[in-house]
Structure formats: C-alpha cells, structure tokens
Amino acid sequence: MKKSLVILFAATLGLAACNTEKKGPGGLLYKIHKDGGKEKIKEGDIVKLNFIQKNEKDSILGSTYDNEQAQVFPVGKKQYAGDMQDVLTLFGEGDSATFKINLDTMAAQTKQPKPEQFKNDKYIVFTVKVEKVFKKGPKEADSTFQKRAGDFFQADFKADMDKKKAAEPAKIKAYVEDNNLKVQTSPSGLQYVITAPGSGEKAVDGDTVSVNYTGKFTKKGDDKKYKVFDTSDEKVAKEAKVHQPGRPYGPTKMVIGGTVPGFTEALKLVGKGGKITAIIPSKLGYGEQGGGPIAPYSPLVFDIEIVDVIKPKASAAPAATAPAGHSANDGHNH
Q: Which of 14, 45, 172, 306 is the most buried (most CB within 10 A)?
C-alpha cells in the first residue's frame, strides 16, 4: 500500500470514534469519516475512487493504494436497495467513509450464492475516499458530457502518470537506504547486490535456469512489510496472501531472454547456487503500462537464487518460459 493506511487515514479514522455506524437499506451499514460538503453522487455521474476492500476478519482483499491507481467508473442504476451503486449515492466528492454491503441481501436479491471466499461472512467491507465526482450539466447532451468527461479524465490520468514517473527514483533510493544495501549499478540502470556469486558457468541467452525467487514492491504496506506480489516459495506466498491453489511452487524453470530485461540481466550475474537481490527500475520491467498487480512506473525488487543452469540440447524442446511474478498462463513474463 502506497502510504501506511494508519497514516493515510489517521485524520479521518481518528475522528470516527465520535460517529456511530448508520443503517441503510438492504442491511447496509455505513460510517462517514469525513464529509466534504459536496453534492451527493447520482446515477450517471462518473466517479474517481480510492478504496480498500476487506472481509469481516479485516483481511485486505484489494486496494487501489497497492498500485497507486484510483478507479474511474460511471455510477449505474441500482439493482436493489443497498447494493454498491445505491450506497455511492450516500457520498459526495471529498468524502471518506466505510460501508458494509450485506452479502445475505446480495445473495437473495441477485439469486446468486455467496462467493466461496465470503461463505462465512455477513458483510464485505469497503473504506472509500471519493476523489472526484464528474457531473453532467442540467441541459448538457450525453455526447457533450461524455466528451468533456473523457477529456478531463484523460488529462487527469496523464498528470497521475507523470507524477508516478517523477517519483520512481525516490522510491528506489528510499528502498536502498532503508535496507542499508551496498548496491552496484549496471550501465542499464539495474541496481543489485550479489549475496552469493555461485559456482560454475553463468547463464547466457538461450540457456534455461531453475530459480527460486520472490518479487516485491519498494514501499511498505500497512503491516510495515514490503508487499510481495509473487514468489516461488509457497510458505512466503501464504504469508503474503498471494498463494495460488494448484500452482506448482518450488524451483521454477525459465529461459534466459524470456523475461523482462532487468530480470534477465540479474539472472546472468551469478552462477549456479548464486543469490542476488535485483532492484529493477520500471524501464527494465513493466514500464509505463504496468501489468497485473504491477502499476505503471513501478520499480520492483527480486530476491533470486539460481538453483541450476541448463544448457540447451539440439534435440530437446525448449523449456516453457515461467514468469517470475505471474502464473505461467497469465501472459506476463518477468
């Protein structure tokens, strides 16, 4: 998460003690932490929200703060009283609030069973901050409104991306300093620390390596730990709550040259048995597009161990390129 949620909501949640949780339609519960005093959201408005999604056990299931990207979407027609579209009409621009959607009501109204992950929960919990509410003028044509909104949010997105790009060097610098790393920097801009050089010949393009790895972001979450987004270590995956049932864990094979440039470069720097921590700037990673849980202009940190280096055989089919950071079939290869 991009700022500790304790810090991020210190002012708003600190005031919550004097607020009582209110009841809404359909079993909804909500609490407004900060009232921005603006006109409430209506159907057809386009909103920009930051939010944290949790279950009743307070486990974070999703957060726009993780990838520093608020969500923009039009407010649709409610399906039933107390659903997600309905609850948004309680808030306006500048508001911060926590609300609990009643899952029993949702199941009854939509004629769909509760999702498996919520089968023992009564509520799904959201803490939201309404960043922007874009409203249609009283006599404005739909086409004019859509163009005006599109122009606004396109410019807003560009400004956000420019901000992220400018902030990247400071993120890398802070990570290096906070962890007291004595890094080396390659001509490409890759920063790294070799903790074990390994033995034997280093891998080159076309070789296959078997690796253990853990990938994480450069900023700490609300638990004061660096958020892991993928790992080949099942124990670490479970602790970081990124475990994928059915996925094979343990040493992962990947072809040199089949991953993003920074990861490929790091793989070539140590031999069999070698260990390296690589800090990969976005230009050597997922760049301005990002991918999956990785936001645009995100520097990444990988702890890598080369378990084996396998030279190609003329008669052998090439090994499948396994991604470091994503499952083998999701289209993203580090």
A: 306
